[in-house]
């Protein structure tokens, strides 16, 4: 397989075939993210992708495939449809295709265009939300407003594609910790995704947010502060049917819960940790990572 640079994927795509169709991220301005800093964004030639598919076909049956890098959905619709048709041709037993997306790329596609991608196998989209606080969205240079994220989520759901939203604990630092948590809960409620993945902020050297941290302009919450944000997000979110997780390696307390069914249980458990300041149930620092 032809991979350029570091390749990442969501935890739930651990057993998926990774097919790199773009290199880098079309936005690549978020102040906290260093993943694609060394990559210049480009769409890979269809000929190169077809060679990878020819190789993948020799692996045997493939059930799930994930389109890399940071935002494959930015590919123009005709070319993206051509790509998905090509994937189905080489991997006829494929059950699901997934991809990262950003709000900008989603809003460039209509609900009907997204529905066509769903018909061609795109079953799940992972959208980095990070925060629901309007000031923080500007500060981290997310490139999207709260309202735009809600509209993007609406189009994905209208198309019948599953939506997985990612949020980051600690994104507001100590200064905006509570506002970040509560506003993010409100945004998630309005988006009503099928899945939510909560990560804990880990500062990456050579990013603007890391520079702010070193200069003392950004102060991270402590462990209990991170758990309090998770507590507030769960307590103040209202979903139709959402699988909420905080099982990423960056998190101190792993959660896997179907909401709203298990909401009361999760809130009670997190509340007890906060009240007792019980760090014994938390993942030790040496086991945490991006």
Task: Assign a percent range to the helix content.
Answer: 25-40%
What is the overall number of helices?
10
**Mind summarizing the main beta sheet?**
8 strands, mixed
Pairing-aware structural class of the strands and helices?
Answer: alpha/beta
Which features would summarize this protein structure in a list?
single chain; 290 residues; alpha/beta; TIM Barrel; eight-stranded mixed beta sheet; two-stranded antiparallel ribbon; 10 strands
Detailed description of the structure:
- The protein is α/β, with parallel strands linked by helices.
- It has one domain (11-276): Alpha-Beta Barrel (TIM Barrel).
- It is 38% helix and 17% strand.
- The protein contains ten helices and ten strands.
- It has helices at residues 46-57, 77-90, 103-107, 111-119, 134-139, 146-158, 177-191, 208-214, 223-236, 263-276, and strands at residues 17-20, 22-23, 42-43, 64-68, 96-101, 122-130, 162-169, 195-200, 242-245, 256-259.
- It has an eight-stranded mixed β-sheet.
- α7 links the parallel β7 (162-169) and β8.
- The protein starts with 16 loop residues before the first strand and ends in a 14-residue tail after the last helix.
């Amino acid at each position: 397989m032809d991979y350029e640079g570091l390749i990442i994927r969501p935890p739930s795509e651990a057993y998926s075939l990774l097919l790199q169709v773009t290199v880098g991220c079309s936005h690549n301005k978020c102040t906290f993210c260093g993943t694609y800093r060394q990559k210049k964004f480009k769409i890979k030639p269809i000929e190169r992708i077809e060679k990878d598919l020819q190789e993948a076909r020799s692996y045997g049956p493939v059930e799930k495939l994930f389109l890399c890098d940071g935002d494959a959905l930015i590919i123009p619709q005709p070319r993206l449809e051509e790509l998905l048709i090509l994937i189905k041709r080489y991997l006829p037993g494929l059950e699901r295709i997934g991809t990262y997306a950003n709000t900008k790329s989603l809003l460039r596609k209509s609900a009907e265009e997204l529905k066509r991608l769903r018909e061609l196998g795109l079953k799940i989209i992972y959208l980095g939300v990070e925060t629901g606080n309007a000031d923080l969205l500007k500060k981290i240079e997310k490139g999207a407003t709260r309202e735009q994220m809600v509209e993007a989520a609406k189009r994905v759901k209208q198309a019948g594609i599953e939506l997985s939203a990612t949020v980051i604990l600690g994104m507001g630092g100590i200064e905006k910790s509570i506002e970040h948590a509560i506003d993010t809960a409100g945004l998630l409620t309005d988006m009503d995704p099928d899945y939510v993945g909560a990560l804990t902020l880990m500062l990456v050297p050579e990013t603007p947010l890391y520079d702010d941290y070193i200069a003392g302009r950004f102060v991270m919450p402590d462990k209990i502060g991170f758990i309090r944000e998770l507590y507030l997000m769960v307590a103040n979110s209202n979903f139709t049917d959402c699988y909420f997780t905080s099982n990423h390696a960056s998190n101190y307390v792993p959660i896997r819960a179907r909401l709203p069914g298990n909401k009361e249980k999760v809130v009670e458990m997190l509340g007890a940790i906060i009240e007792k300041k019980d760090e014994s149930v938390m993942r030790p620092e040496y086991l945490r990572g991006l």
